[in-house]
Specification:
Blueprint: H1 2-28, H2 30-36, H3 48-70, H4 72-98, H5 105-140
């Protein structure tokens, strides 16, 4: 069980660091971020304010994941909140394909950076919620 916990915390740490790093680049260098990320230029004209807004969200989502790694009592709530935003973001990308804003190739292109983090974070949130319930039962017994 300790090995599984280490892997889970490692995945959360990697996702958190990735989110914070992506957000910082979006905040500090939005133009280069816009042109460097595959597919972004096909979603509309560059908007510095919008890129920075989303960059701030990525910093906060990453910070929630990292804080959850360090603070077990807050983990389920933090990871669930991060999962909600990431899932909404992934669903928005799928909606853009469904209504024809982006072509079907966007699904595969976006999967590693959009959909996979949402799936992994949702799994982390589910694990953290289960772990919190098990811990509270142990404390009562």
């Amino acid at each position: 069980m300790m090995r599984a916990r280490s892997i889970i915390l490692g995945v959360a740490t990697a996702l958190g660091l990735g989110g914070v790093a992506n957000g910082i680049v979006m905040l500090l260098d939005p133009v280069n971020w816009y042109f460097a990320v595959p597919g972004v230029t096909s979603t509309g004209a560059f908007n510095q304010h919008f890129v920075r807004d989303i960059g701030l969200i990525f910093v906060l989502v990453g910070a929630a994941l990292l804080t959850g790694v360090l603070r077990q009592p807050m983990r389920a709530a933090l990871w669930s909140t991060a999962a909600l935003w990431l899932a909404g973001h992934a669903m928005f990308h799928l909606w853009e394909v469904a209504v024809g804003i982006c072509g079907p190739g966007a699904i595969a292109r976006d999967f590693p950076a959009v959909t996979l983090p949402a799936i992994l974070t949702a799994a982390l949130a589910g694990w953290a919620s289960r772990d919190a319930r098990l811990n509270s039962r142990r404390e009562v017994a």
